[in-house]
Amino acid sequence: MTNFLSVKTFNKKNYINFYLQVIALGVKMTSDGTLSLENTSFKEAIKIAKKGTHCGMCRFDFLESGVCPAGRKKGFLAYWPQGRMEIVKQLYSGKVKPTEKIKDIVQSCNFCGCCDKQCNFTTQLRPEKVARTLKEFVENLDENEFEQVLEDDIIRGLRDIVGEEWATNDPVIISSYTFTILPLDSELNYYVVMPDSTKQVSEIIKFANKNNIPYLPRSGGTAFSAAAPTVLAKGLSLERGIIIDLYRLRNLEIHPESCTATVGAGITMFELQKEALRHKLRALAAEAGAHVCSNIVTTGIISTWGNRYGAFADNFIDLTTVDDQGNIKKHSDWERDNPYSTEPGFTNLSLTPHNIVTEAVVKLHPIFEDEEVVLVPFEKLRDAYRLLIILGKRGVGLSLAVLSRKYLAEFLSPTLQISKDFDYVCKNYIKLNYVVSVICNQDDKKIVEDMVDYTIDQSLMRSLILGAPRFSNLKDSEFMKILSEEEDPLKTIFAGPMRDHLEKALDPSPENVAKVFDEDLQDFFKNVYSKPEMTDIIWLHAFRILPTRMMRQQMFMGPGGAMWTGDEDHYLNWIQMFSDMGDKLNVEHSLGFITPLDNGKFAYMEYDYYYDHNDPEVCDRISKIVVDSMEQSLVKGKVLTILNYLFKGIYRKEHVLYPIAEGISKEEQELFKELLGTVLGDEL
Amino acid sequence: MKFLSDEWIKKAKQITAEKLDPEKDLKKATTSLLNIIENIPPNGSSIYFFISVKNGFIEEFIINKTGSVLNKDAEFVVIGNYDTFVQILKGEMSITIALIKNRINIKGDKVKALKFVKPMDKFNTCLRQIKTEY
Fold this sequence. Notes:
By secondary structure, chain A is of the alpha+beta class.
């Protein structure tokens, strides 16, 4: 009786709780209805699911591997790989019980393997294992173990608007939205509705108002997933009510003659960029998984291309919006009040959108035949920053940024360990701490090359990507130790004959980089890395499929904001402030990137903190950093913090960035503390 | 008693006048505020709730359904749904959260408005003492 227990003696409620508890301990239900202490698949599934960060990269086809057919067909998050992972977590926690709908969810997965390829490329996870375990779990339940979900007037009303299959109050489906719009401790008293038109969104809002039910739109959910483990969750999430999932608004039309695109709220930046590229056009690039419309609303698209292509309302020529009364409006409606201005000042905080943008007509930009990438390596941040701002003010380049060593290592490396070793080699041997990354035409390239002693070009970057495993192996190289003693190791390695030796030593090839992936995926990744775009720095900058690698095995939080660039010391001291906070609170941290805005008069900076989002204690420290960094930034002045950025994207940058904010007074600081204390919790 | 019924309004005026300390609770504030509560069930009507305070003493407390208080020159106007006001009065949602989540809109100087959040919280806490059926 030590290894086998009869389940027949348990009643329904006890059974499920018991089953979940024991299966989590590595217990398996055998064919005769007993449980044995043999199977550890559920444990492994939980481990994978907990590492999931809801980056949303499984919802579009960025590797040409196909995309989850069940998710595409059924829409609700529960049918996507990230949703299945969340369901497993929620079942394990006991927060949700199996319902009839879960049968459909598990049966809809045909184990095609798309999710493993996509997720493994970005975060090294294998979500298909989770899907298999979930299916096994559900198939082993007795028929009477599934809870029935009753209809109520609200769900009937929502179904009248969107059709029977596109509205649900099923707790399993609702639970899949945890972490991407619902707070971790929510009661699951929600409805999810998936409209396919602006008119339906309008009707849903009118219906919600009539019934006094709060609502919140959801697109990719990536912004909230980063905030979910922190104090920001309370302000950003929906506490109850209707989740309006905008995925089905999938209109996408390119208008080459006007260099514009009409984009529905369900379209990701990757999908837009791919269509634009067919016409030799480019959109201002947010991260690949961000939905275009919601990214415009949330932050006005923060991008390294922003100095040239614009920011905030520069991004679009028209928006279709639904306001909080359900009224449909367009920015181009000539008789409406000015939709481009917003209140100035630090109290203008908004953690949810004022309007739902259902469709945008965005600007696209020409791709030039002679575009090139040039990267300038630096040891010191001040030198990199200075070059960046000069280039920004002179209008050199299409994409301009200081990228940290950490970013380079994370983006270029196929695994977490390789990224750590890559980072080590850059830091300790060659003193490569920052690069100024410039994508430009040939004229601009000459300008940059005339300003500096040495650069890194596309060829060397390709070698670093395909030779990343070899490069990271240099960690134990005696030669690198000797190189590190040179007066200027960067110059030695990038400006002389050493450069050719390095490229050869890296032995860059798709075969070599593919070898570091799981054995069953190596052929696939060899093909992936054989594609020219996977080593094309311009393509990678425009399609931004690599940043989610920052979430390998852990979450990150990236506070920052846009600061006036008129005082170099002021700017660099601000960055130092973030670094000091990371040291003080013992959280892994690094500058992310700096990119100029508004012809170099401002520069946006992201400072990243890396942490385990399953550890409540470290989440508290991250929360403290978020709050303290914002307060201290406001005291310093000349800055628009990321929290003040939120949900200002539809306004003109001139109204958001100007007048340049002065540092807040002592009295205002106290008021701000009170404000945040009320919103985020006094304990901070 | 039923929320916003004549009986409730009478009790609200009485209890706030009796229980709120002008200095401790209302911080000797001098201001005026008009709340517009929209989408009140069952027919989606609105209610207007005007309050003026001088040195912490409540001078006017008017609740009506006609909108006649719209003529009052309030320093702040707060507009929101019935459900949001109920959540605030029940203590389920703070005024600041409601503001940041765009559940209420404030017209007026926001910095100044924030200074009155604490006195308003006291006001709402006082109203919570009325056994209310929402």
